[in-house]
Amino acid sequence: MAVIASILGILLFIMIEVLPLMGRADVTPGRAWSWNPVLPGAFLTNEHRTRLAFLTPEGDLVVLDSESGGTLQRYPLIDGATESAALPLQPANGTPGQQVLYAATADGRVFAVRVDWIVGFDEDRRTVRAEPRDGVFFPLELDGASVVRHSVQISDDDSAGALAATSDGRLLLLRREVEENLFSGEVEERWSRMEAPLRGTVSSLVIDGDLRNAFVGTDDGALEWWRLRGSALESASRSEPGSPVTTLSMLIGDRSLVVGRDDGALEIWFPVQPDGESAELTRIRDFPSLPGSINAITPSMRNKGFVAADTGGEIGLYYSTSARVLWRGEAAPAPQRLLLTPKADALLASDSGGVREWEIHNPHPEVSLRSLFGKIWYESYPEPAYVWQSSGGSDDFEPKLSLVPLMIGTLKGTLYSLILAVPLGVFGAMYTSQFMHPSLKKVVKPSVEVMAALPSVVLGFMAGLWLAPRVETILPGLVLMALLVPLAVLVAGVAWRALPLSIRGHFRAGSETLVYMVVISLAMFVSLRLSAPFEQFFFDGSVQQWLLKATGMQYDQRNAVVVGLAMGFAVIPIIFSIAEDAFSNVPNNLISGSLALGANRWQTVTRVVLPTASPGIFSGIMIGFGRAVGETMIVLMATGNTPILDWSPFNGFRTLSANIAVEIPEAPQGGTLYRTLFLAAVILFVFTFVINTGAELIRQRLRRRYAEL
C-alpha cells in the first residue's frame, strides 16, 4: 500500500505541474490615465510599466509617471531653429511593438525617434528615465501628391526606413543606412529612394525590421508582398481579393504578418517557398472573427502573440503558433491604439479620453493540443510538420513543442531493440531450460543474468564511441551475418543429427553446444571477411551511397541499428531470466506424459511446454518492453539525439526519456518547457501503465486458457 501510495503521489505531483499548460489567459482591468487636452499617437512604456512616453503635436517627447500621472521629463525633439519646427506633428503609422515613436508633419514628411529606458539606482531606489536617440526625418518629396499611409521602422543598427503610399498610386520607400568607421568613429549616412506603381487603393501597409520586405493591403482585400532587390522594389506575390484589409502588423521576428479585415477576420500570412519554386505569400491560419471591423493590432515583444481590437470595442488576445484565442473582452469606447508592454504582462489601449490598462497573466500561450500532437505550419517551413525544437536562440523564433517525434522515437528505439532481444531472450531461455545439460546451465544462466548488472551509461558510452563507428564500416558484414549465421546453425544441426549414434554417443550430453559455438564464430568471421567484397558487388562499393541513391535514406553513424544492438544487449537478460523461469516451472508430469505418449523432445517443448509457459514468457517480454521504453542513457549517447520523425533504421531519433534528461537542466522552473517536459513524463507513465495493464490482462487470459493442461 505504501508503494502504491508513493506512485500515486508521484503521478499527482506530475499532474499538478502539467495542468496549468492548458489554462487561458487571466486579464483584469487596471489603471487609467486621462490625456486631455493632449491626444497622443503612438506611446510607449518601460519594462516595469512605471513610465509612459508619447509625442505631443508640437514635437515634444513627454514622459509621465504611471502612478501619479505627473510629467517627469519633456524633451523638444525638433530644433526650434529648423523649418520643421513650425510644422505640427500628426500621428503616423509605425511598426507596433517597437520602442520607437512615430509622427508625420503637415507637409507629408515622417519623423521617428527610438527611445531607450535607462535604469539606475539612487540610494537603493530604482530610477528610470527616457533617453531619446537622434530623431530621423524622412523627406519623402511627394511632387505634389499626398501621403495615404505611412509605415516607419528603425533597426537595431540605427538604419531606418519609411514606407509610404501616395495619393497618385505610388509605393515609396525612403531608406537610411548608417555605417560607423571602426577606426575613426566617423558615422557615414547614405540615403536611397525607391518607387513602384501600386494597384488598388491602399488601406494599410507595413515594413519589416530588415527594411527588405514590405506588405500592402488594399480596399479590395488583396495583399501584396514587395521585396527590396538591389535598388528597386519588386512585387513578389499578390493574393486574391477578399474583404477589405484594415490593419497589418508584423509579429516578432518579422516573418509572420497579421491581417485584420473589415469583416472582423484575423489571419496569419507568411512567405512560403516549396522546393524548387518561388516564394509566395500564403495564408496560414484563421482566427475567430471579431464582430466589427479590425482597427488596431499590436504584437508582443516577447513571443508570437498579439492583440486585436475592432471598431465596436471588442478586444482579443491571440497566439499565432498554437492558434489559440487566449481571451476576449470589451472596451468602451473603442480603442484607437494598442500596446502590449515589453513583458507582455499588460495591455494599454488609448482612445479619445486617455489610456486604459489591463493586467495580463498568460504564462503558457504556446501550448495547445494541436501544437503538442498535431501538425503545425511553422514560419519558413514549406508545409505543416511535427517538430520538436524547444529553443531557437532568441525570441524571434517560435518554440516548436510537438511531442509526436519523441513518442515515435520512443517506439522506434523500443522496436529495434526488441527485434534483437525477444528472439535471443526467449529462444535462449527455451534451449537453456529444456535442452542444455544441467552442468552447463549452472554456468550459462548466472552469466546471462550478470549482464543485467552492466550500467546503461557504460553500454551507451561503448555504443556511441566504439560500436557506432564499427557498425558503419562492417554494415554489409552484419547483413551477411543475419543470413549466414542461421544458415550455418541449421546446417550444423542437420550434420550433427546425421552422425551415427555410435559416434554421437561418445560425447557427453550438451557437448553439441561447443560445436555450435565454433560454427557461429566461423560464420561471423566469414561474414566480416566477405563484408568488403559483398559491399563492392551488391552496393557499388558503398552501402551509404547506395542507400541514399536507391531509397533516399541518409545513413547517420549513430542510428537505430546501433541502439538496437546496444539496448537489445541490455534487455536480453531481463527477458531471458523471466522466460527461463517460466519454462523451468512447467510441471514435470506434463513433460513426462507427453514423452510417454510418443512425442519427441522438440514436439513436447513446442506443443506442451511453450503454451504452458506462455504467460510467464509474455510477462518477460512486457517487462523488457518497459525497460526499453524507459531507457535513457543508451539512446542519449548512441542515437545522436535528433528529434526527427522517421522510421528508418539508419538515422537517429530522440525518446521521451532522453528528451527529459537533455532539456530539464535548461528549463526554467514553471516555464512552458518545464511543464511540457512533465507532460512528457505523464505520457511515459500512461504509456507504460496501459501496456503493463494490457499485458497483465493477456497474461491472465493465457493462464486461464492453459491451466487445464
Outline the structure in words.
37% of the residues lie in helices and 28% in strands. By secondary structure, the chain is an alpha+beta fold. It folds into three domains: 34-138, Lipocalin, CATH 2.40.128; 139-240, no CATH class; 404-705, MetI-like fold, CATH 1.10.3720.10.
**How much strand?**
25-35%
| CATH A-level architecture of the largest domain | Orthogonal Bundle
Kindly state the number of beta strands: 31
Q: Which superfamily, in CATH terms, is the homologous superfamily of the largest domain?
A: MetI-like
Q: For the residues shown, what is the average pLDDT?
A: 86
Q: Based on Cα principal axes, name the global outline.
A: elongated
Extract low-pLDDT stretches.
80-93
**What is the total domain count?**
3
Q: What is the CATH class designation of the largest domain?
A: Mainly Alpha
Radius of gyration: 36 Å
